[in-house]
């Protein structure tokens, strides 16, 4: 739902449901109908939540309402809290993103550190 590249890490796109379904979602719906295997969530926020950590966007609209059965991949560092280091909050953030349907591709170093922290 990103409409611009500038400030993409801090930008929050406010889009009411009608605008999402009439403007932003038709291309995604066409992809789902064509058996698209994956989508990528972005850096930007959508209605106050980062797109890679947005339950109603990923689970509600994409998977439940559009019947998307593929996987969601995070854009490079788009899952917030990753840049804060491998703290307990980071581990929780990764677990939550995975629970919400985001497939995380992590570097070997981060993957090992996450495995050590539980």
TrEMBL record:
Oxidoreductase is among the record's keywords: no
Keywords: Hydrolase
Assigned EC number: 3.2.1.21
SUPFAM superfamilies hit by this protein: (Trans)glycosidases
Pfam families, per database record: Glyco_hydro_3 (PF00933)
Domain Glycoside hydrolase family 3 N-terminal: 16-106
Catalytic activity from the UniProt record: Hydrolysis of terminal, non-reducing beta-D-glucosyl residues with release of beta-D-glucose
InterPro entries, per database record: Cellulose_deg_GH3 (IPR050288), GH (IPR017853), Glyco_hydro_3_N (IPR001764), Glyco_hydro_3_N_sf (IPR036962)
UniProt key word Ribonucleoprotein: no
Membership in a protein family: Belongs to the glycosyl hydrolase 3 family.
Name under which the protein is recorded: beta-glucosidase
Organism of this sequence: Prorocentrum cordatum
High-level lineage: Eukaryota, Sar, Alveolata, Dinophyceae, Prorocentrales
């Amino acid at each position: 739902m990103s409409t611009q590249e500038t400030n993409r890490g801090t930008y929050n796109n406010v889009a009411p449901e009608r605008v999402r379904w009439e403007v932003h979602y038709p291309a995604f719906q066409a992809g789902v109908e064509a058996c698209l295997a994956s989508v990528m969530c972005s850096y930007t926020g959508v209605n106050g939540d980062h797109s890679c950590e947005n339950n109603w966007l990923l689970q509600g609209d994409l998977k439940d309402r559009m019947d998307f059965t593929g996987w969601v991949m995070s854009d490079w560092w788009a899952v917030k809290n990753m840049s804060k280091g491998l703290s307990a909050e980071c581990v929780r953030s990764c677990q939550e993103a995975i629970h919400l349907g985001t497939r995380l591709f992590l570097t070997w170093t981060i993957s090992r550190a996450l495995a050590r922290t539980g």
